[in-house]
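Justification of computing resources. Each target in the renewal requires a structure prediction run like the one illustrated here; the chain below, 434 residues long, is used simply to show the kind of job we budget for.
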Amino acid sequence: MSDSRERPNLNATPAEHLVEQATEESDGDPTPAFSLELTQDQKDIRDWVHGFAADVVRPAAAEWDEREETPWPVIQEAAKIGLYGYEGLAQFWFDRSGLTLPIVNEELFWGDAGIGMSIMGTSLAVAAIFGQGTPEQMAEWIRQCFGTADEPKVAAFCSSEPDAGSDVSAIRTNARYDQARDEWVINGQKAWATNGGIADVHVVIASVDRELGSRGHAAFIIPPGTDGCQQGAKARKHGLRASHTADVHLDDCRVPGSCLLGGKEKLDERLARIREGEHGQSQAAMQTFEASRPTVGSQAIGIARAAYEYALDYAKQRRQFGRAIVENQAIAFTLADMKTEIDAARLLVWRAAWMGRNQIPFTNAEGSMSKVKAGEVAVWVTERAIQILGGNGYTREFPVERMHRDAKIYDIFEGTAEIQRLVISRALSGVQIK
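Resulting structure tokens:
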């Protein structure tokens, strides 16, 4: 099915246009009909990103995995072609079907997950600003998250802490308002922050009222060069080694009052309603994770698809006992199961992305379904790929070993598989399962 709309210009959308699109009312068009046939725009963007992943990302993957360093040259290449930057992200996001952003992530992570996360890690901070910020805050900060094509920057979203991962209500980082100076004073330590410490812009979740638990959280912008915001220990990770992950220390970190996402008036109104016993909206960290789960799932699918395709090609070429190993049922059936699981996970991701983009409530925790399924499929498929390659699959001479290491985190971050099942079971049963 073709699409007669004008092709997207990935290098022409100004920040003001992004804010205008984000805040204006719907143009009255009905929700797009669901279709499994991609539009021509979506196909073109998919092929464009796939070409970048094949020609630029894959050849650099092993090197940056070994170096365990941020691949700035690759990020700059992505910025130069419009793949990394607020213009491209806006074009991907404003597709009314909701599918373009997952498609882009799948193709990029098909190239390599560590480099893919270095390119896409900024989007989590952008999602927080976009979801909770005022139009003025979006216009001011989203551009700064990316820098320029000549000098790209990255941003970090800081929620987890040493003692607060899945249990976001245990966050101890606190923010106190200094009314005389119209500043917020933030103290605490964040852990597992993608781009933590090397980012120009940090988005930090902090408690403004400890007695309210997670409902007393708010999100703050930490501008570039702010005193009291420093990188802590850098994580030496099992996978995603090309993506920088570190602690962030906040020591009497003062930010202007305007850096509270959404503004103080909105925060005071929300806290007052909660104190009076009204039901509050999702707390700041979970609002961001709810929006990002289908995209995270698409990243896992990209890893799984890469491992499956490599194993399939290997099985066609590898000969044992006088024939290609793909001719053995054990291998052929495993490949069939791998492909089936990948396609099933993708459909869950696409459904959740479509629902989220069109503001259709996740009544059965469809976002969590997509994330837990895609993460577990990625781990299982990459493990099967190693098995098909045998001893070769266990060595770093072949990429499936790296893919398996990269896949495991998708069972853990942005909500472990156990937490996703808790969310799903609560949605299905209406019972506060613990």
